[in-house]
Specification:
The chain is 77% helix and 0% strand. By secondary structure, the protein is mainly α. The protein is rod-shaped and about 110 Å long.
Length: 142
């Protein structure tokens, strides 16, 4: 879809293009043919010349990409761009949540280590405090 408004209906465009192509042989150049028809249509010469070129491309007389194919390519390129943006967003979100999961996992691990350290404090710093006290009691030292 063009960014400008279309002042002329498609029938007027087709007729103007037909007039240029039919009367081209009567003039020394295409531009002169365009200039002779512009006054009847009421558009600018460049606009009419663009319409003629586009009609030639669409009919296969001129070696460029036809309008229909160009529109389809634009649509596919737009879709491709949107999909790349969506992939980038998903990649960043995945990295963010992976990092958040690692932070959560590390905090749980630290809490577990902290709980183990707290447990060691409560039962004594030597580790195996109950066993040690029983052994010393048997030997009569305690």
């Amino acid at each position: 879809m063009s960014k400008t408004t279309n002042k002329f209906p498609p029938e007027v465009r087709e007729r103007a293009v037909r007039l240029v192509l039919d009367n081209e042989a009567q003039h020394r150049s295409r531009w002169q043919a365009v200039m002779s028809i512009v006054a009847k249509i009421g558009c600018t010469p460049q606009t009419l010349n663009d319409w003629v070129k586009k009609a030639e491309v669409d009919s296969g007389r001129r070696a460029l990409v036809p309008t229909e194919m160009a529109e389809k390519m634009r649509t596919l390129e737009r879709e491709n761009r949107e999909l790349r943006q969506a992939n980038e967003i998903l990649r960043k979100a995945s990295a963010y949540f992976t990092m958040a999961e690692l932070v959560l996992w590390n905090s749980r691990l630290l809490r577990q280590k902290g709980a183990a350290a707290q447990h060691r404090k409560l039962r004594g710093s030597g580790g195996g405090g109950v066993v040690r006290s029983l052994v010393f009691q048997d030997r009569g030292r305690v």
